[in-house]
Amino acid sequence: MKIAILGAGAFGTALAVALSVKGPVTLWGRRIGWRGENPRLPGIPLPEAVAVTDDPAAAMGCDTMLLAMPAQALGGFLAEHGPALDGKMLVSTAKGIDLRRLTGPSALIAEACPAARIAVLTGPSFAADIARGLPTALTLACADPATGQALQHALSTPVLRLYRTTDVTGAELGGALKNVIAIAAGVVIGARLGDSARAAIITRGFAEMTRLAGRLGARPETLTGLSGLGDLTLTCTSQQSRNFRFGHALGAGADFDAATTVEGVATARAVARLADRIDQDMPIAAMVARLADGLVSVDNALEHLMSRPLKEE
């Protein structure tokens, strides 16, 4: 199976490094100004088996492609390259909800590439850990069991273990929604509200995730797995998470690197719109969207959440 990774950011590069132990990998990026080592992954040299290119044609000959780009960039990429990707096995690693369509990555791919076999790779992982060969377990979601099984074997390595599911909706929503809750957890710690408050945000945030995912057809067990609870736990408790760091800066009233992609911000906005559309209560997600847009202060957000009507858990 010839593998190409489209998107040469930290995560795409880390996957290329990890998968190169199984054979040659083509790594494509739109603008690659580096050779030998991606500055987003310092200290991780690229193996000889990874061929880096900015020519899309060099990657299109592969039958399996991992789309390792931010959720909000995926639609534009597919509009430009969709016909060349159709009919191939396409694996999305994006963790977000498209702001324009209010759908996950797999729906965008299916619309642009109707003959493609589509899967989603998600779960608790940091690029640096994967690139360094640290043990990592992920979820591979594919509606077609045969395709999912083929991809599971092709993309698993001795230190990268993939668990298979057919619940694409649940896997996508777990990966997307946990970024929103990670921002909220970061706000709590940045504002020095304490670990008890963070535990409450994680728990109630997970309840929000589960409710929305259920409304949209996800299976409960998917949300309690790697792509939901597992990823939520990781990103709400580590400074390696960009979403957590962004929330921490919000809570502390500090600046944040504007060049750093924070998937949870756009996802929070998308979730707020989606929740309104289907009349689903998502108080934490809605408040994260308002905080990120500067429409409410941290103190006012806390007051609003703490003054909600008392109820059973």
Account of the protein in words:
The protein is of the alpha/beta class and 313 residues long. It is 50% helix and 12% strand. It contains 14 helices and 8 strands. It has helices spanning 10-19, 56-60, 71-85, 105-112, 127-131, 145-155, 168-190, 195-215, 220-223, 226-235, 242-252, 263-278, 283-292, 298-306; strands spanning 3-6, 25-28, 50-53, 64-67, 89-92, 117-122, 136-141, 160-165. It has an 8-stranded mixed β-sheet, with helices on both faces. Helix 1 links the parallel strand 1 (3-6) and strand 2. Helix 7 runs parallel beside helix 10 (226-235) and helix 7 crosses helix 12 (263-278). The longest helix is centred in the middle third of the chain and has 23 residues, at 168-190. The radius of gyration is 19 Å and the shape is globular. Catalyzes the reduction of the glycolytic intermediate dihydroxyacetone phosphate (DHAP) to sn-glycerol 3-phosphate (G3P), the key precursor for phospholipid synthesis. It is found in: Cytoplasm.
SS field, number of helical segments = 14
Helix content: 40-55%
The counted number of beta strands is 8
Largest sheet: 8 strands, mixed
Subcellular location: Cytoplasm
Catalytic activity: sn-glycerol 3-phosphate + NADP(+) = dihydroxyacetone phosphate + NADPH + H(+); sn-glycerol 3-phosphate + NAD(+) = dihydroxyacetone phosphate + NADH + H(+)
Keywords: Cytoplasm, Lipid biosynthesis, Lipid metabolism, NAD, NADP, Nucleotide-binding, Oxidoreductase, Phospholipid biosynthesis, Phospholipid metabolism
Pathway: Membrane lipid metabolism; glycerophospholipid metabolism
